[in-house]
Automatic annotation (TrEMBL), chain A:
Organism listed in the record: Corchorus capsularis
Protein name: MIP18 family-like domain-containing protein
Pfam families named among the record's database cross-references: FeS_assembly_P (PF01883)
Biological process terms in GO annotation: protein maturation
InterPro entries for this protein: FSCA_dom_sf (IPR034904), MIP18 (IPR039796), MIP18-like (IPR002744)
Domain MIP18 family-like: 45-107
Family statement drawn from the similarity comment of this UniProt entry: Belongs to the MIP18 family.
TrEMBL record, chain B:
Keywords: Repeat, WD repeat
Annotated protein name in UniProt: Probable cytosolic iron-sulfur protein assembly protein CIAO1 homolog
Alphabetical GO biological process terms: iron-sulfur cluster assembly
Nuclease among keywords: no
Listed InterPro entries: CIAO1/Cia1 (IPR028608), WD40/YVTN_repeat-like_dom_sf (IPR015943), WD40_PAC1 (IPR020472), WD40_repeat_CS (IPR019775), WD40_repeat_dom_sf (IPR036322), WD40_rpt (IPR001680)
Length: 163, 349
């Protein structure tokens, strides 16, 4: 883990207002894509650079434009979810960690039979194919999550307190 | 009976629960294939345990006879019985391979093979039970010699794959080793002389009609002259070689691509297995098991394969499919849903 922020000057966007939906067209077991979105409000990429005393940029993935409403597609009939995310810089080495965190969190929110595919947005990362392949190899994901150091990092990202 | 003409279905015989996490792999004990012997198989899981299941002669159903726990400290990814059925090897993400022996009904860990730098993904015994192979994320394939007193000596570490090696499998009749990898290739390893060095004698890659993504598994037909591989590229590929020539000591005979079965799977194919009577079973990430058979009306280019049936087998990904090695047409499947199912291929009532 390197000291110093990977991206010290991220572009921060204003949080979009959440529009409450009055009717639920999908039925009882429907999962509103915006719900996933709500569960990641304080996901801070830079929180896990532990050696920095003052956490800089305690912004969410939303605010850094890593994730947005458009990046999540759910097909309830087939039970498939596709998430694309945009790492803030082309060579972001945190891309695989972000992907792992997304997987762990989303597994908690969806029924077990749902299939989840996670990709970096096309053109957003220098090693796009390599990152996508790792993120979607479930054996690699399973082994990574059994690694205590990596697991701790993921847990910190997901469950760290509101700043 | 012409398989394609008969009205066949995969009938669920039993659903076995017990594992508390995904079941990655299973293996039938080859010594229990005979009709008068209760059949046994082993399963391994993300719950870090291995379970031994035995058929009850009275109820004709399988019960869990033993849970092999407190040995592996991480996921147990694959298991394989020695040809005699006396030993069980288990490969784990904890970077070790354990060897278990059935000592009067209890399974004891009699040896632990260390050496891989990280997760061991697969283990396989050769036909005579004199050699063992393992492979893992460290990109290597290890060959171990089985010595008396349950001792295992590593005779060579094979380098060549450029990525994570997913599975190793010995040829059914010859001492030829196959490995398949995240680097999209299948490699064939062979040693000219009995005491010689092993080397990679062939790589089945994209340039010779190989897969375009991770190759997860491979299996041989009964004769050993055909090979089927399955991949994240959503296809199965059939390969063949002039085994007779090889068996007569005429040197290495290369494997050639025969055909590609594409358009049948829409998600990763994790497992493939060939039955004694020529039926290929596949297990995939769409929760289904598919069966393929050789189609008799092949073109001049040789036989082709047809889909016999597709069955939604589990609630989650199917990780492993294994045909029973005996006479009965039974198939076992293991899934991310934590269950194992036993199926019978039978005529529709």
């Amino acid at each position: 883990m390197t000291l110093g922020l990977i991206n010290a000057n991220p572009v921060v966007h204003a949080k979009k207002e959440r529009v409450a939906r009055s009717e639920d067209p999908h039925g009882d077991d429907a999962v509103d894509p915006l719900e996933i979105y709500d569960i990641l409000p304080l996901f801070s990429i830079l929180n896990f650079v532990r050696d920095i005393r003052d956490p800089e940029h305690p912004y969410s993935l939303e605010q850094l434009s890593v994730l947005s409403e458009e990046s999540i597609t759910v097909d309830e009939k087939l039970g498939r979810i596709l998430i694309t995310f945009t790492p803030t810089i082309q060579h972001c080495s945190m891309a695989t960690v972000i992907g792992l965190c997304l997987r762990v969190k989303l597994k908690e929110c969806f029924p077990p039979h749902f299939k989840l595919d996670i990709k970096v947005a096309p053109g957003s990362h220098a090693d796009e194919d390599s990152v996508n392949k790792q993120l979607n190899d479930k054996e690699r994901v399973a082994a990574a999550l059994e690694n205590p150091n990596l697991r701790q990092l993921v847990d910190e990202c997901l469950y760290s307190n509101e700043l | 009976m012409e398989l394609l003409d008969a009205n066949l279905e995969l009938k669920e015989i039993q659903k076995l629960q017990g594992h508390t996490d995904r079941v990655w792999s299973l293996a039938w004990n080859p010594a229990t294939a005979a009709a008068d012997v209760p059949s046994v198989f082993a399963s391994c899981s993300g719950d870090k345990t291995v379970r031994i299941w035995e058929e009850s002669p009275s109820t004709r159903s399988w019960d869990c006879k033993a849970v092999l726990e407190e040995t592996h400290t991480r996921t147990v990814r694959s298991c394989a019985w020695s040809p005699s059925g006396k030993l069980l090897a288990t490969a784990s993400f904890d970077a070790t391979t354990a060897i278990w022996e059935n000592v009067g009904g209890d399974f004891e860990c009699v040896s632990t093979l260390e050496g891989h730098e990280n997760e061991v993904k697969s283990v396989s015994w050769n036909a005579s039970g004199s050699l063992l192979a393992t492979c893992g994320r460290d990109k290597t394939v290890w060959i171990w010699e089985v010595m008396p007193g349950n001792e295992f000596d590593c005779i060579q570490v094979l380098q060549g794959h450029t990525q994570d090696v997913k599975m190793v499998q010995w040829h059914p009749t010859m001492d030829m080793l196959f490995s398949c990898s995240y680097d999209n290739t299948v490699k064939v390893w062979w040693s000219e002389d009995a005491d010689g060095d092993w080397s990679c004698v062939q790589t089945l890659g994209e340039s010779n009609n190989g897969h375009s993504s991770t190759v997860w598994s491979l299996a041989f037909n009964a004769k050993g002259d055909k090979l089927v591989t399955c991949s994240d590229d959503l296809s199965l590929k059939i390969w063949e070689a002039d085994i007779i020539r090889m068996q007569s000591g005429d040197g290495y005979a290369p494997w050639n691509h025969m055909c590609t079965l594409s358009g049948y799977h829409d998600r990763t194919v994790f497992s493939v297995h060939w039955s004694r009577d020529g039926i290929i079973a596949s297990g995939a990430a769409d929760d289904a098991v598919r069966l393929f058979v050789e189609s008799k009306d092949g073109s001049m280019n040789g036989p082709t394969y047809q889909l016999l049936l597709k069955k939604k087998a589990h609630d989650m990904d199917v990780n492993s499919v294994q045909w029973f090695p005996g006479e009965k047409r039974l198939l076992a499947s293991a899934s991310d849903d934590g269950t194992i199912k036993i199926w019978e291929l039978a005529s529709l009532a």
